[in-house]
Structure formats: structure tokens, C-alpha cells
Design a protein that fits this description.
The complex is a heterodimer of chains A (about 130) and B (about 725). Chain A has one domain: 2-Layer Sandwich (Alpha-Beta Plaits). In chain A, β4 and β5 (about 75) form a beta hairpin. Chain A is globular and about 40 Å long. Chain A has 3 helices and 8 strands. Chain A has a two-stranded antiparallel ribbon. In chain A, strands 2-3 form a two-stranded antiparallel ribbon. Chain A has helices spanning about 15-25, 85-90, 115; strands spanning about 1-5, 35-40, 45-50, 65, 75, 95-100, 100-105, 125. With about 725 residues, chain B is α+β, with helices and mostly antiparallel strands. Among the domains of chain B are: about 5-235, Aldehyde ferredoxin oxidoreductase, N-terminal domain (Aldehyde Ferredoxin Oxidoreductase,  A, domain 1, 4-Layer Sandwich); about 270-480, Aldehyde Ferredoxin Oxidoreductase Protein, subunit A, domain 2; about 625-680, no CATH class. In chain B, the strands form 4 sheets. A 7-stranded mixed beta sheet of chain B has the order 1-9-8-13-10-11-12. Chain B has a 6-stranded mixed beta sheet with strand order 3-2-7-4-5-6. In chain B, a hairpin with a 2-residue loop joins β16 (about 475) and β17. In chain B, α18 (about 490-495) runs parallel beside α20 (about 520-540) and α20 (about 520-540) crosses α28 (about 655-680). The mean pLDDT of chain B is about 95. The chains are: A alpha+beta (about 130), B alpha+beta (about 725). The interface of A and B includes residues 78 and 81 of A.
């Protein structure tokens, strides 16, 4: 299963990962559109990104969420009815939404582009 | 299935939805057949909001005060409302059906989940009016994808709901994936022979790969559908998105929706367990507070409660499924029993998915008839849906029959061999089958409902009418739903001071009143019997389900507000304000929600006054107010003796019959006082007729509405 492994202790909060993600998938450098969120919690960097656990799959009423051949949880935007139940039921709050981006929610698909953009090695694409 | 014969076909151009409204309704006359697409005016939107409001507005124009339920001009009007079909908030797929009821001979409105309401609106219609009577069995098909309406000749010999619904999903879908784009409204055989016919409304479950049935159960809508010779209404609309309603503020919808999805995720297991057992979580709670109807509401508790405990039902319900009856319903209370093998009747041996049972069915076709066997209840639930008959009416009606049988008011001779004691599972199931067959005279009598059964049993079988009046749990011709109201004066009003009869969608005040003692005076009770029925009306105007309002509450709800306010769940009320404004672009407040509702509530009351020619009476059976027989008293002797003492009587040495009579006399006085306080609070006169002043305040002083009020109001009935 491909997933993004995070090392918060290496994160410097530069936001390059969010910039890369949002610019790639929504063609706009807007961190609200990023599928990975970096914030500061209790003075420490916090990286929130999907761990591909799949808890959202059974919540979806139209089976728009599925696991692909690499084990990555994907959302079929055409099937999705934008109900956002998956957002509310994500155990790690890693399913994101923003009406200005699209009605459907969005999540990390373990493409690894953010890891290549990270200057400190705080993100790593893994296959386990 | 062979290709169906098209009797008539029309094309139309689909009008897109703007801010929750299409501003069009579809009028179908199945007699002619003919259709007309009519505009919905701004005034109608402003005054009637949508859903049940539109239904009643259209129905008013369609009928006269002399219209009977089976006259061609009676309509079934179905409408969702401006919020119907949004996906971001739970419980937003409801539609409301209104008609002149075969049970009460006045307006009834009944709601259902399933996809019919949303798909109808997406197909270009805020409402559908069905009028006329067809000569032969027909299917009405609305194709929102193609902009096409067809009246088709029915090929069905088995017209029962599961058969028809599954076949029509198959027939109108291109492939398996397309089945979710279809919804079917169907009734069944028992809807033809009883007044309890329900409207089954479907949605397709892609995981189970079966059509699921939700019901606008109450009031006899299915009976009218079959009287019009309609086998099914079908709507198709594909590729539903989350923005079909074209809301003005998707950002707010998303924010409020995610907030409550998280709330349900975090709190449902600790609060109502709707996601795992649905409303059946109430079984043991109702029993604990003497509210579970047992043996025709004689008792509120049973020693057999463990057999129908929610934990037992949980094992029957398949867990972990996305059980919403519309997209986005994270409350997911539409539980289902899968791989259930039917033991009796025409489907014997079939392995099926059964929708439910919900609490109401667990109690009606369970404890109330003295059967504490979940498998029997599940099968009875299946056949009730399949035959198109309402489970609540059926169970409460059967409970009345069982008590009549045990009292010797009717005998085996009358029942054509059935031994209908409480708990007579096999014979009660046989009675359900006989009702669907429509030939057995006794089964046909039962299907007329308690109000008419009382007359039939008295006239034909010589049964004591006086006793039946005391124990028959109906009001306005409608069977009482499944809570024992005896010990809550406020709930007497919650059931019997309602627009359409004793159902539970207006006010459920038992805990506030009886348990938490938050309504000590008649004025407090009247306030609650003003606010809650009116507030709950709002769900029916907008296309919402009531459950996400208070079957999950914010974690801080109970200590953030004083108890009387906490019962209103203020944060969720604000959610509804936000959602309404986000969809429609209006700027309403929570007070405006009450105004919107009060307009329609009073309009419906005047409508009923019109249909009853001034005599829209509120009545209550003795059983609803306390014990009728000594065994009921003795089951809670200490409690009832205490109640007698509160009225200043000394129960020591008093015969139980006398105790019952004295308590009833006092409680009857309370009922009259309650009725007066409630009518006054609602702005009605002593006959329960809204005053012209009230109508003017609400902006509902349409000349034809005022004319009805003036026709039947007398100066001596004024309460102010």
C-alpha cells in the first residue's frame, strides 16, 4: 500500500508541500486547496495527511470511494454526490473540502509530489 | 419484463432549479389522461414555503368541502421543499404527500424517505399533483433525463410493492449502476382492501443490490393510489451532484454539514445509536418509563422486554452499511435485515432484505399485540410493506381487535376461525394475508380502521360500543402511534390536539412533561403544544427529516441551556436557519421559521374545518388518559393510588372500578382545561377554529380562507 509517511520533527513549516499540491491539482497556489495540511499545534509542526486507512470507504453512499490497485484510497469525482460524510467520519480529519475548489471533498492520493518539494525530508512516499 | 404499452406520452423542457425552487408543479390527471405543467407563484413560495405547504395549497384548490377520499378530484400531492435534495446535511431527502384521507375524511400529510422527492425536483417539479381515476392499472413515469412523461399500461399481475418496485428499477435502468437514478412509489394488495394503504417510496441500495422501501405510511395515501388504479409512480434522474439545488452559499452548507457529520460520528454511539439500531434503540427506554404499548396500551411495560431489546435487533440488522435513505444522511437509521427467510404466505421460502423494523413497528406489530418475537415482527413488517399497508395503523388496529376478542366482544365465529388473543402470532399473520387477499369479510372490516370497526363490530356482532369507545386508540379516525400517553397531560395534547390525529410527528412531550416536570402549568403545556408542533411543521415545509434535529445533540446542549431551551436544541435550530439561507439566499431568523410554519399549520387547520364543515373535533379515548379496567390499575396500583391522593381522594377501601371512575373524571377536567389553554395559545376559538385576527397576523387572510372561518365561527366561541 502506498502512503505518505511524515516526519514532523523535520518539518520547518515552509508550506512548499501545500503549494506543490494545490498548484498541481487545482492550478492555484492556495493552501486551502491542498490535500496535505501543515499547521502549528502547541508550538510544534503538525502534518495532517491521509494514511490510506480506508475508514471512509464504507461511509460513502454511492461507493465513490475505493481502494486502487496500489492500495491508495481514491475518490471518483463523477460518482461523488458531495455529501461530505467522509469528511466528518475520517478518523484523522484528513479528508478536506473547499467550496471554491470544487463541491466534492479531496484527499491525498499518495502521488509523492509534495515529498519531492519538501526541502527537509519531512515527507516520504512509502510502499508497505 | 416485456416492453410496456405506452398509453400516452408528453415531452417537456426541464426547468433548472434555482435557490432550491423550480417554481413549477406537474399536474397529472390519470383519468383523461392529461398533464399540465403549472407555475408556482412568488406568493405561494412566500406563504407556503414548499413541501407540505405546497401540497395543501394545491389540494385546497383541487377539492371542495364535499370531496370524499375516493372522488376523482381528490389528489395525492407530493412535494419535497426548497432544501429537499441537498446532500451536505443529514436528513434532506424527505418528501411529503398530502390528500383527503380515507381514515379521517380531512387532510392528511405523510412523509417518506427514499429518493422520490429529490429526483422529482431535479426532474423539474417542486410538486406533483395526481388527480382523476384511471380505468385500468397504470404506471406514471417521469423521465427527468429525457424530459418525458409517460402513462403506461401496467403489466403486473402481482401488484405488491417489492415485486413492482424491483421490476421497475430493472425496467427503467440501463444497467446495474443506473438503478440508483430511479425511485418508485408503490402500494400493494392490502392498499386496495383497507383504508390503511401506505405509499412505499424506494431507493436503490448499491451495496445490497436491492430496492429498499421507505414509507409515507400513515393516513391511507396508498389506498388512494390504488383507488386511482395507479400501480406505481416512477421518476428517473441521473448523475445527481451535490449542487442540483443551485444553492447561493455552498461554503456555508459544507461547513454546517461537516459540523453535524462530525457530531454524529463522535456522539451517536453515546447518545441514540441510530447508526447501529435506528429508532429501535427506544425499545427498552420506552419500557423503562412505562411508555411501551403492551396489549392495546393497557400496560407500558412487559416482563418480555429482553426478547425485543435493541441489542437483539442489533444482531438482526446488518452493521456497517451506509444506511441513509438519501445521500448525505450520516444518521443512517434506515436499518435493514438481510438474508431473511420468509416463513408464511405467498413469499414463503424467499430470502429477502427487510427494511426496518423501526421502533414504531417493534411496538405496533410486537408488544402492542403481545408478540415478543423479533422474527415474527420482521416478517409482519415485510408483508405490511409488500402489501402496502401502514405498520402503525395495522398494529394498533390489531391490538384493538385482540382486546375485543379477549373481552368476548367478538368471537371465533366472527373472525372466521382465527383465535385472535394477544400473542396469537400465527393467526395474526394469517389475518394480514387475508387482508391482502381482500375476500374475508372480517379482514375487510378490520382494514376499515378502529373508528369504523367500532361501528361494524357493534352493528354486526353486537359488541358493546361503549367499551370499544373507551379502548379504541384512535383520534379523528387515525390510529394512535406507539407511545402510552396516559401519564402525560401534555402528550394527550401532543397526540389528540393535532391537525390530523394521534401520530408522533407534532409533539413528543412525555419526557419534558412527565419525567422532567418542565411543564407544570397548563400555560406551560400550551406553550409547548404551540411551539413544538409548529417548529416540527417546518421540516415538512422544507423537505427535511426530523431525526437529525434532536436524535443527536451537541455535547454541551444539556448544560449550555436551561432545560426547556435545551429541548429545542438551539444549535441545531441555528443550523437549519443557516442551511435555509445558504440554499435560498434569503435572510431568515429562527423566529421566521416559526412564522413560516405557523402559516401552514393554521391553513391546514382551516382546511380541516372546511372539510368537516365546522366540526373538526379533537377527541381522546379513555384508554389514552388512564386505566380502563382494574388489571391496568393494579399493574401500577401504588402509582395510581398516589395519583388519586393528589386529587384529594382516599383510595383505601375504595373498589378499583370506583378509583378508575374518579381518576377519569378528574383527568377529563384536565383534558378540557388543556384543550382550552392550547386553543387560546394557538389563536383559535373554543371550537378550535383559527380566528380571523390570527390569520391576519400571519398574512394568511386569503378571502377563501377567511370565508371558511367566518362561516363556522360563532361569537360565543371566542376565547379572548
Amino acid at each position: 500500500m502506498k502512503y505518505l509517511k511524515t516526519y514532523a520533527d523535520k518539518c520547518i513549516g515552509c508550506g512548499k508541500c501545500m503549494e506543490k499540491c494545490a498548484s498541481t491539482y487545482f492550478k492555484e497556489n492556495n493552501e486551502n486547496f491542498s490535500r496535505i495540511k501543515v499547521s502549528v499545534m502547541g508550538g510544534l509542526p503538525n502534518i495532517n495527511v491521509c494514511n490510506q486507512c480506508g475508514a471512509c470507504i464504507n461511509v460513502c453512499p454511492v461507493e465513490a470511494l475505493y481502494r486502487d490497485k496500489n492500495g491508495v484510497v481514491r475518490l471518483d469525482n463523477k460518482k461523488c454526490t458531495s455529501c461530505l460524510m467522509c469528511v466528518g467520519f475520517c478518523p484523522t480529519a484528513s479528508m478536506f473540502f473547499d467550496a471554491d475548489a470544487q463541491p466534492q471533498p479531496f484527499k491525498c492520493i499518495a502521488c509523492g509530489l509534495c515529498a519531492t518539494a519538501c526541502p527537509t525530508g519531512a515527507l516520504e512516499l512509502q510502499n508497505s | 419484463m416485456d416492453k410496456m404499452n405506452i398509453l400516452k406520452e408528453w415531452s417537456y423542457e426541464r426547468t433548472p432549479i434555482d435557490k432550491g425552487y423550480v417554481r413549477k408543479n406537474l399536474h397529472v390527471n390519470v383519468g383523461t389522461p392529461a398533464i399540465e405543467i403549472r407555475d408556482i407563484s412568488q406568493d405561494t413560495i412566500d406563504k407556503f414555503t414548499g413541501g407540505r405547504g405546497f401540497d395543501l395549497h394545491l389540494l385546497w384548490k383541487a377539492v371542495t368541502e364535499d370531496t370524499k377520499w375516493n372522488d376523482p378530484e381528490n389528489e395525492i400531492v407530493i412535494s419535497g421543499g426548497p432544501l429537499c435534495g441537498i446532500t451536505q446535511y443529514p436528513g434532506t431527502g424527505k418528501c411529503y404527500a398530502a390528500f383527503i384521507s380515507p381514515l379521517s375524511d380531512q387532510t392528511y400529510d405523510s412523509n417518506s424517505g427514499g429518493y422520490f422527492g429529490p429526483l422529482l425536483k431535479f426532474s423539474g417539479f417542486d410538486a406533483i399533483e395526481i388527480q382523476g381515476k384511471s380505468e385500468k392499472d397504470v404506471i406514471v413515469f417521469i423521465d427527468g433525463d429525457q424530459g418525458k412523461i409517460q402513462v403506461l399500461e401496467s403489466p403486473f399481475t402481482d401488484i405488491n410493492a417489492y415485486t413492482v418496485t424491483e421490476a421497475l428499477h430493472e425496467y427503467f435502468a440501463k444497467d446495474e449502476a443506473d438503478k440508483i437514478n430511479i425511485s418508485v412509489v408503490a402500494a400493494g394488495k392490502a392498499a386496495e382492501s383497507t383504508r390503511w394503504g401506505c405509499l412505499n417510496m424506494s431507493f436503490y441500495d448499491p451495496r445490497r443490490k436491492v430496492a429498499r422501501l421507505k414509507q409515507a405510511g400513515r393516513g391511507g395515501g396508498g389506498t388512494i393510489l390504488r383507488d386511482k388504479k395507479i400501480i406505481a409512480l416512477v421518476v428517473k434522474y441521473s448523475n445527481v451532484t451535490g449542487t442540483e439545488n443551485h444553492p447561493v452559499d455552498l461554503r456555508t452548507l459544507q461547513k454546517v454539514g461537516v459540523k453535524i457529520h462530525k457530531e454524529i460520528h463522535d456522539l451517536d454511539d453515546k447518545q441514540c445509536s441510530m447508526r447501529s439500531v435506528g429508532t429501535a434503540h427506544l425499545n427498552e427506554i420506552m419500557d423503562e418509563y412505562h411508555l411501551l404499548p403492551v396489549h392495546n396500551y393497557k400496560f407500558g411495560q412487559s416482563p418480555h422486554i429482553d426478547k425485543i431489546h435493541s441489542s437483539v435487533y442489533k444482531k438482526h440488522f446488518t452493521q456497517g452499511m451506509a444506511d441513509g435513505c438519501w445521500y448525505g444522511c450520516s444518521m443512517a437509521c434506515a436499518k435493514a435485515v438481510d438474508k431473511f427467510e420468509i416463513q408464511t404466505g405467498p413469499c414463503k421460502g424467499h430470502v429477502v432484505t427487510v427494511d426496518g423494523p423501526e421502533y414504531e413497528t417493534v411496538a405496533s406489530l410486537g408488544s402492542n399485540v403481545g408478540v415478543f418475537d423479533p422474527k415474527w415482527t420482521i416478517e409482519a413488517n415485510f408483508y405490511a410493506d409488500h402489501y402496502g399497508v401502514d405498520t402503525i395503523s395495522l398494529g394498533t388496529g390489531f391490538a384493538f381487535v385482540c382486546e375485543c376478542y379477549e373481552l368476548g366482544l367478538i368471537s371465533k365465529e366472527h373472525t372466521n376461525g382465527l383465535e385472535l388473543n394477544f400473542g396469537a402470532a400465527a393467526d395474526l399473520m394469517e389475518l394480514i394475508h387475508r387482508m391482502a387477499e381482500g375476500k374475508d369479510e372480517f379482514a375487510l372490516a378490520v382494514g376499515q380502521g378502529i373508528k369504523r370497526m367500532k361501528s361494524i363490530f357493534a352493528d354486526k356482532y353486537g359488541a358493546d360500543k361503549n367499551v370499544m369507545e373507551k379502548i379504541g386508540m384512535e383520534g379523528q379516525g387515525v390510529e394512535t402511534s406507539e407511545y402510552v400517553p396516559k401519564e402525560s397531560v401534555a402528550q394527550w395534547g401532543g397526540y389528540y390536539l393535532t391537525l390530523k390525529g394521534p401520530q408522533h410527528d407534532e409533539a413528543w412531550l412525555i419526557f419534558m412533561d412527565m419525567v422532567n416536570k418542565q411543564l407544570p402549568t397548563f400555560e406551560d403545556k400550551a406553550d409547548a403544544l404551540h411551539y413544538f408542533p409548529v417548529f416540527r411543521t417546518w421540516f415538512s415545509l422544507t423537505g427535511l427529516c426530523k431525526l437529525p434535529w434532536n436524535d443527536v445533540e451537541p455535547a454541551d446542549n444539556s448544560y449550555r441551556y436551561r432545560p426547556q431551551d435545551a429541548a429545542k436544541v438551539p444549535e441545531h435550530v441555528q443550523n437549519y436557519v443557516d442551511v435555509f439561507n445558504a440554499v435560498t439566499g434569503k435572510n431568515v431568523t429562527k423566529e421566521d421559521l416559526i412564522l413560516q410554519s405557523e402559516r401552514v399549520y393554521n391553513f391546514q387547520r382551516v382546511f380541516n374545518v372546511r372539510m368537516k364543515k365546522g366540526n373538526a373535533e379533537h377527541t381522546i379515548p379513555m384508554r389514552a388518559m388512564g386505566p380502563v379496567f382494574p388489571d391496568e390499575w393494579d399493574a401500577r396500583k401504588e402509582y395510581y393510588d398516589g395519583k388519586l391522593k393528589e386529587f384529594g381522594f382516599n383510595p383505601e377501601g375504595m373498589p378499583t372500578e370506583e378509583k378508575i371512575a374518579k381518576l377519569y373524571e378528574k383527568r377529563w377536567g384536565q383534558w378540557l382545561e388543556l384543550k382550552k389553554a392550547v386553543y387560546k395559545r394557538r389563536g383559535w376559538n373554543a371550537k378550535g377554529i383559527p380566528t380571523v385576527k390570527k390569520l391576519k397576523e400571519l398574512g394568511m387572510d386569503y378571502p377563501e380562507v377567511v370565508a371558511v372561518v367566518e362561516k363556522y365561527s360563532r361569537p360565543e366561541d371566542e376565547l379572548e
